[in-house]
Design goal:
Blueprint lengths: L5 E3 L6 H11 L7 E5 L2 E3 L19 E5 L4 H12 L4 E5 L22 E5 L6 H9 L7 E6 L11 H14 L4 E7 L1 H4 L3 H15 L4 E6 L13 E2 L3 H13 L4 E4 L1 E2 L1 H6 L33 H9 L2 H20 L16 H15 L6 H5 L3 H15 L1
Helix pairs in contact: 2-7, 4-6, 9-10, 10-11, 10-13
Length: 389
Amino acid sequence: AGRGALIDLPGSLDDRTARRLVRVLAGEGGETEVAVRPDGCFARRLVRTVPQRGTGWRTHGTALITGADTELGADTARWLADAGAGHLLLLTADAPADDPAADPAADLADAGVSVSRSTVDPADSDALTALVAELPAGHPLTVVVHLAPALGRDGTDPVGAARNLCGLALDHDLVAFVLCSCAEGILGGSPAHAHLDALTQQLRARGVPATSLSWGPVDEPDRAHPYGMNAISSRSAGAMLRQAVEQQTATAVLADIDWQEFSMSSEPGRTQLFDDVPEFEPDPTAEFTDEDPGLDGTALRESLSEAGPEERAQILRDTVCEQAARILSVEVDDDTDFLANGLTSLKALELNRNLMALTNVEIPLVAIIEYPNPTQLAEYLVEAYTEAL
């Protein structure tokens, strides 16, 4: 299938900008993502950064953390408490554990820091506003760290949640605002996570000390990950987050990447982003494929071709369940909700590619989100498979 490109234009198009746009459309420069402006055309590049010593960054008041019921969330909460936060507002996916030993942040209250926990979904604007309005007197909101999207806790509306948190940033005098996303927003072009990065840039333009962090997999050492990425530990992830905030970093990718593997799986003509990474050495003669070479769908396709409609639907349900279970690392049945079981944009992309490789049917990525369980997704696949015959 053909691949598109992304061109970002200013609010108004003058003659100079229009001429630049025409040249970009004609292929000048060979870029696939370009911002066209009256004063020039701009493209992104990924460059390596060297961590610096901490600056003694301090805070006060209340720090709000999403994805707080994780090791990385607990590590972040401890750091912010040590840095001066007097109150911690921890947003979690589930109700607090009855057993303190099961709570990764159980020791915070013992350190003299007041802690409140809530299961409010940041995508619910009214509930989020009401929650912040109840903060203790003398502890205004000063820090927001949105870890959830990078930890498989996207929720029902990740973009809506990020927008609502950005609204808090504009209504309060913050010393730090961190939006986290999965690294495919940079490496694989995920629209949702790329949008989070754009929101951060808008906040910085309005004077908010905002940071956008795109994460590789955290604490998932036993899973195979696309893009040549290896899992990083919560401890390492926490240290990198602290460095990014202390250095007032605008945007960063925090990932352990096997550049040789990534180079082999990268599509020729779409690799300019990595031109300044010396380890990235794509083979210009290689033929690109989205398919995982370890997936062989020959037997599946033969079964589908010989099956009737009902049997075909069951075969595809079983296939979706098998692939989703492997990617989500949970048990999956016909009615398992993908989002409720940790489906991130990165995992949706992996599921999408695997199903296309197995069925040889073109499946839009949005279908993985629009059909949120194996039964509904299989029904869509039956229709798509039948149309492709």
